[in-house]
Amino acid sequence: MSKTAKIIIALLTGFFIIFMIWRFSHIVFYLLTSAVLSLIGRPVVKRLNALHLWKFKIPNGVSAFVTLLLIMLAFISFFGLLFPLLADQADIISNINLDALTKTLQEPLSDFELLLKKYNLLQHDDTFNKLINNQIAQIFSFASFSHTLTSIISLTGSIFLALFSIMFFTFFFLKDAYLLNEIIDMFTPDKYETQVKHVLAQTKHLLSRYFIGLVVEIFIMMTLFSIGLTLFGIQNALLIGFLGGLMNIIPYLGPLIGALIGILLAVSTSLSHGYYSDILPLALMVACVFFTAKLIDDIILQPLIYSNSVNAHPVEIFFIILMGASIAGIPGMILAVPFYTVLRIVAKEFLSQLKIVRKLTRNI
Fold it and tell me: What angle (nearest 5°) sits at the alpha carbon of residue 214, between those of residues 83 and 159?
């Protein structure tokens, strides 16, 4: 077979693989999520396998099942704490005196309405009240209600299918540490088997460190936010801390989103009590807490997680995250570091003759 024919076949195979990944993206998502959970749970399985009950060693399947239960328990506990806090916040928002709030904001809203009309962003015969009433009418219309109900039913079915699939895959990835290797090995040419095995071993090692570190970072940031807001006397500090820490899964941009959510929740609580003059001081206090925690994250946590765990320079990581954001937005930012880690490992194994590859992979 000629070299040109080999290149064409390789390109067609690559395009076919990309198409299949796109076509079955939800299944790929289940597999990737399961792989991440198995990387996080793998150290627990190893610890359980090393234990002995009298003369009996714990079977690998039991260790995997217990680890999966612990992962599920962690998620259930997290959401079990979060949902009551969300319910309390919804109750607080429902107690806001809309009439008093409207009177307080009447003048600035009128000025803003005139500004929008001046630049033709709002029709001259429209008002904010009219727009709000139209939106409410659309929300509570029968057609909208039917569509929403159908969407909820469909979403519920999709969520249960996703959860079952992820748990199923995670259990077997935990039970058989080499299952993913065997799947990849089936599609690997014989002459590349050794190199691919090196890639998989290094990938598991680095990504396991990265994801475990990321989980630790999220919980530390939740704690810092909650303690800081509690010291300032902010109500629902735990809820704001939970949501703010959870947003840290998005590199660099996450704390900003968390701060905006925190300010909105704190302000809504103040409005429910009729403290309209406290809006600005509350917003500044929440922003101060998030800014301080962000400094701690930037100086201490992120260098340990994004740099040391994947052995890359902070500037290098920041550049990669920017590229991920430009390609796929927030999902791209979340996946940028793991994807770049795998790419570096593959490049080191197969393209080490290139100077740029040697420079970028010298620490792995």
Answer: 45
